[in-house]
Amino acid sequence: QVQLVESGGGLVQPGGSLRLSCAASRSIFNIYAVGWYRQTPGKERELVARIISGAATNYADSVKGRFTISGDSAKNTVYLQMNSLMPEDTAVYYCNARNVFRNYWGQGTQVTVSS
Fold first, then answer.
1. CA angle 46, 62, 95 (to 5 degrees)
2. pLDDT digits (tens, 9 = 90+) for 35-64
3. For residue 97, what are the CA distances in angstroms to 12, 23, 26, 52, 87?
4. Are 111 and 90 in contact (CB under 8 A)?
5. pLDDT confidence of residue 55
6. How distant, in Å, are the alpha carbons of 3, 50, 80 from that of 57?
7. Mind listing the pLDDT tens digit for each residue in 92-105?
8. CB 14, CB 112: distance < 8 Å
9. How many CA atoms lie within 13 A of 114 on its CB side?
């Protein structure tokens, strides 16, 4: 079993930045695809960014050029650097690690972008 714990969420003004962290209880990058998802009330949980094999990345069109996903294998931690934040980015952000056999979620961290 893998435990995922997110941190770094909070209240930020439009145009500001936050860095989210997801600490995993064991090695994940060469076993699972790791990603960040977000969800607002009444909407489906959507993919924000993913990292595969600890290297290849992809992003939702809405965050390209603003968000960066990265990982530190030594710390079993994945990060989401969020710049130029907009009110539309307000959501609960979830860390995810999955493969064909397992699918793990963190508890989520709230990000609120508001003036």
1. 40
2. 999 999 889 999 999 999 878 999 999 999
3. 27, 11, 11, 10, 27
4. yes
5. 82
6. 22, 5, 12
7. 999 999 999 999 99
8. no
9. 7
